[in-house]
Design goal:
Elements (H helix, E strand, L loop, with lengths): L10 E2 L17 E10 L2 E11 L4 E5 L6 H9 L5 E6 L2 E2 L5 H6 L2 E4 L11 H7 L6 H11 L1 H5 L10 H13 L5 E5 L7 H14 L5 E4 L3 H7 L2 E6 L2 E7 H6 L1 H8 L4 E2 L8 E2 L23
Parallel strand pairs: 1-11, 4-9, 4-10, 7-8, 8-9
Antiparallel strand pairs: 2-3, 2-5, 5-6, 10-11, 12-13
């Protein structure tokens, strides 16, 4: 069983009030208290405490295997957990997944999970379970014109980027109060990342989002607040810009910003590079499978 470091206590950034990075201006939409999750014999989450402010994007960050995806699955009720999950003023901890979704949670999974044998249109129609969904479909088509263009195409024949657009489009058909998005740019080409980020920025302008993202440049562009996990605990929370400005913090918790050894050409290489942590440094790399966590 994983041991918790005794010094792995949560540090709140200056200006952040106990995890409510909105400065107390509004009650948090999501409040997580003492959240524990086991997967088999492994104790993955060790008493998480954090909040998500309304109408903001909060990035959930950390190295590989610290429990980011596990956190989202626990919030959805897809994994059993102990502790309290308060959503929109109500304790949803005892509720099954479908009740949580009906109450306003929407989810974009890490691996897209589209129905490959159905067409794009059929995938979207299956997600239209709310009275508002029909009116939201033009917005999805405006954000992702490829989905309208390829409406009759089987989802399994789409590129990875197009499948990601479809997964996001399905979630946006839900008039959600809180959108949980797990690594939306994972494995995508840079040009597609730019398109997906632009669409997300527009779609989430007035929404509340909890975003898991391994690309720090993407997280910086989309998120105002950050929660950093380390060994299954909240190690830091506060403003995203404060976290990014702290080189020691980024190195200790995310493994980025460290100068790498000089190569054969004599030039020193930085782990910060394109803003994506390098997997060979044990950081939050582009193939973050959570290691079962």
């Amino acid at each position: 069983m994983m041991e918790v470091r005794e010094d792995a206590v949560a540090h709140t950034a200056p200006g952040a009030s106990g995890g409510d990075a909105s400065g107390g201006a509004a009650a948090p939409l999501l409040r997580v208290k003492d959240l524990h999750v086991h997967r088999g014999e492994a104790h993955i989450l060790h008493g998480l405490d954090f909040e998500v402010a309304p109408n903001r994007v909060t990035a959930l960050l950390g190295r590989n295997g610290v429990g980011k995806t596990t956190t989202l699955l626990a919030l959805l009720g897809l994994l059993p957990s102990k502790g309290q999950i308060e959503f929109d003023g109500e304790d949803i901890s005892p509720q099954p997944t479908h009740r949580r979704v009906q109450g306003g949670l929407a989810y974009v999974p890490e691996d897209r999970e589209v129905f490959t044998q159905l067409t794009v249109e059929e995938n979207l129609r299956l997600a239209m379970q709310w009275p508002e969904s029909e009116g939201r479909l033009p917005m999805v088509h405006d954000l992702f014109p490829e989905l309208k263009k390829r409406s009759a195409q089987k989802a399994g024949s789409l590129s990875g980027g197009q499948q990601q657009m479809l997964a996001l489009g399905r979630a946006l058909l839900h008039p959600a109060k809180l959108l949980l998005i797990d690594e939306p740019t994972k494995g995508l080409a840079p040009i597609i990342i730019t398109e997906v980020v632009a669409a997300l920025s527009q779609a989430t302008a007035d929404s509340t989002v909890l975003l898991v993202e391994q690309n720090l440049r993407v997280a910086e562009e989309l998120a105002t607040d950050a929660v950093v996990l380390d060994e299954g605990q909240v190690a830091w929370r506060g403003r995203m810009d404060a976290m990014l400005a702290d080189a020691d913090l980024k190195q200790s918790l995310l493994g980025v910003g460290r100068a790498r050894p000089a190569g054969e050409d004599g030039r020193t290489r930085s782990a910060e590079g394109d803003g994506r942590a390098r997997p060979d440094e044990g950081a939050d790399g582009s193939e973050d499978t959570e290691g079962g966590a």
